[in-house]
Amino acid sequence: MVINLKFPVIETKQETHDVKSIKLDFDENKFDYKSGQYMIVELETGDEENTHPLSIASSPSEDFLLFSTKASQSSFKQKFNSLKVGDKVKMKGPMGIFVLKEDAKEVVLLGGGIGITPFRNMIKYSCDKKLPIKLTLLYSNKTPDDIVYKDEWAVFEGQNPNLKVVNTVTDYQGADWKGKTGRINEEMIREFCNDINNTIFYICGPPGMVDALSNLLKTMNIPQQNIKVEKFVGY
Q1: How many domains would you assign to the chain?
Q2: Same domain, 200 and 113
Q3: Model confidence pLDDT, tens digit, residues 30-46
Q4: Sign of CA pseudo-dihedral 140, 162, 100, 198
Q5: Is the pTM of this model over 0.90?
Q6: Which of 52, 177, 203, 222 is most buried (most C-beta within 10 Å)?
Q7: Contact 196, 222 (CB under 8 A)
């Protein structure tokens, strides 16, 4: 069922230097949605750039809605970044078929930058529902400071013995970084994937990254039906 309602902002958070989150209360209008879906969010921008799809970063098991966006000069992003507690946000949805396959045996999530939002949803949902899925997140960013929801990943891993979170950075040489370096590649995927021929892959991030990883999986002979993609186009 598609709803069209306004929800009040109850918290804002600067996740990184250029990513901001807003948390909204259902305000007695809680609706059902699937893990990985998005909403069409409408903001009063004063021009035509007033609606955009935003992935729901919160899990259906949580009692609030969470959205995160990366800053840009668009009027929509400017308005999003200026939202404060008490403001009401109009949205329509839920929509989308980029949803977690709950009966899968193994799932690998390949994320880049702000493309992490639907994966936070899927991971939190799998933790709360104690799904028996072997779940691996490979998350690529330029630097450690760009990792969104950084404080939550270890918490989720502690809650779910089937979850492995792997961060990799592409533009950082600091000796303090103990994680992976470089873009997500075949070697990395094979290292953390147990049964590659029976794994569902979800890819989310900038279009170039999504296309590159989708093509990589095809060269690895992953069946097309096991590759799910969601492109985040800049706005």
Answers
A1: 2
A2: yes
A3: 999 999 999 999 998 87
A4: positive
A5: yes
A6: 203
A7: yes
